[in-house]
Amino acid sequence: PGKLYVVATPIGNLEDITQRALSTLQQVDFIAAEDTRNASRLLNHFSIKKKCIAYHDHNENSQSGKLIEQLIAGQNIALISDAGTPLINDPGYHLVKQCREQGINVVPIPGACAIIAALSAAGVATDQFYFGGFVPAKQQARLAVFKKLTEQTFTSVYYESTHRIIASLTDLQTSMGEQQQIVIGRELTKTFETFFAGTVAKTLDWIQADRNQQKGEFVLIIAGVEQNSEIDQKSMALLAKLKAYMP
Ligand code: SAM
């Protein structure tokens, strides 16, 4: 059988494509792309001429079967999404799962990924982190998700779109309090790349004051609750002792 190459593409800056991604895209028999028009733009830029077929959220199920047949027949296929690493909040899960079940080789060609880019430059603890995907679109779900984070000791990371960034930050403030520390990574690797770090309250002031900052693509990083520092543990122990003397 052939191999499925899961190829990461840039999240903005086209120079972030890897040598290995380019040679893989050149060598495969064809490319399965989330959006064939976006794919053509990328391929044209690198002067790669290759057949592209659509593989997206709406045809993932039916398309996976066909792709599996072609892989079994010996075709090598590259899977790409619109930006960054496929399967990271992008199509591909069905295909990769089926390949694994059928013993077809799946080869990752790593590269850009917005969460990792944001974490690498945010200045928050990254030894452990939780990735929550997109912040829920509905307010109730959003408030509940953020409420849960008040107990999270490690960093949390979410994707957010331009349409809901203010609503999300507002709900984050409601659920976690204005003093919660966050970092926003916006338009990473692009011309207007911006990082803003501070309390939710400060971040809201900043973003509401400048419409331009509300545009584009966002990674929202939420610091974990104070990882019980030594002093905290001492205070807690003291409080516990004092409690015994309280009326
Ligand atoms: N597969 C992609 C990856 O590896 O990062 C993520 C795809 S997901 C459908 C798209 C979301 O990722 C955007 O709404 C945004 O939250 C985030 N994102 C993608 N590119 C970004 C960038 N250049 N700067 C900030 N966030 C970005």
UniProtKB/TrEMBL annotation:
- Pfam entry (one): RsmI_C
- Residues in Tetrapyrrole methylase domain copies: 3-201
Q: Name one GO molecular function term.
A: methyltransferase activity
Alphabetic keyword roster: Cytoplasm, Methyltransferase, rRNA processing, S-adenosyl-L-methionine, Transferase
Q: Write out the catalysed reaction.
A: cytidine(1402) in 16S rRNA + S-adenosyl-L-methionine = 2'-O-methylcytidine(1402) in 16S rRNA + S-adenosyl-L-homocysteine + H(+)
Gene Ontology biological-process annotations: methylation
| Subcellular location per the Swiss-Prot or TrEMBL entry | Cytoplasm
Entry keyword annotation includes Transferase = yes
PANTHER family cross-referenced by the UniProt entry: RIBOSOMAL RNA SMALL SUBUNIT METHYLTRANSFERASE I (PTHR46111:SF1)
The name under which this protein is listed is Ribosomal RNA small subunit methyltransferase I
The protein's organism comes out as Catenovulum adriaticum
